[in-house]
Amino acid sequence: MNIHGISKPDQTLLFKNFNIADWFSFYRIIAAPFLLLFILIDRREVFSWLLLISYSTDFIDGQIARKLKITSSRGSQLDSVGDQVTLVMGLTGLVFFEPGFLKQHATLILVAFIPYIIQMLIAFKKYGKATAFHTYLAKLSALTQGVFLLWFFFFGPVYWLFYCMILLGILETIEEITLIFMYDEWVAGVKGIYWALHDKRRVKKK
Element (H or E) spanning 3, and its range? Predict the structure, then answer.
């Protein structure tokens, strides 16, 4: 944001500039310490309900942003951070509450998780921050992750859903890495590789 000719990039991080959709995203970030607390004190049921609320806000913020036409790069980035924090908390809950399941399927989980870490490192090296492409595949992957984790914590594992989650996670990560190399500059809101091929933003601004 530029005020009286002075660039103030950190202005967008001030709470007073957050819109209602941003606050739903921000909720997921501030909920993380509480999720961790309930993990550490072994309150699985409370943790599960709080995780359900966090995943619900992920759906709500996107709907509000589109309906009120208040989508922004800041909102996309905040949404991505909220998603990542919620996923990490979900996986942390899995480690503490279901260590047996984790050990049994450690190889598959690592096959999906290591490329994700690599993708994050590439993004930070190139853009200085996480991506916020929000592709269709990423949304489907996040939905599958949320449904699997929540069902697991409330009722138990659904194995076909677990395998779908792993597969979608790998495919989504490959797509994210591909998009990083397709875009010279950080952008938000890319539906997928097909749409990126027709996106004028791929041309680096001079």
Answer: strand 2-3
45 and 106 fall within a common domain: no
Name the strand (E) or helix (H) holding 6.
strand 6-7
pLDDT, tens only, 129-142? 889 898 999 999 99
Average pLDDT for the chain? 86
Cβ of 10: how many Cβ atoms within 10 Å? 8
Query: Would you say residue 113 lies in a domain?
Result: yes
Burial 23-61 (b: 16+ CB within 10 A, else e): ebbbbbeebbeebbebbeeeeeeebbebbeebbebbeeb
In the chain, the number of structural domains is: 2
Identify whether residues 151 and 56 lie together within a single domain: no
Residue 100 is predicted with a pLDDT of 94
**Residue-wise DSSP of 78-89:** HHHHHHHHHHHH
DSSP lists the bridge partners of residue 2 as 7
Coil, helix or strand at residue 8: coil
Hey, is 132 helix, strand or coil?
strand
Q: How many Cα atoms within 13 Å fall on the side-chain side of residue 78?
A: 27
- In which region does residue 203 sit, left (phi positive, over 0), alpha (psi from -120 to 50) or beta (all else)? beta
Segment 157-192, tens digit of pLDDT: 999 999 999 999 999 999 999 999 999 999 988 999
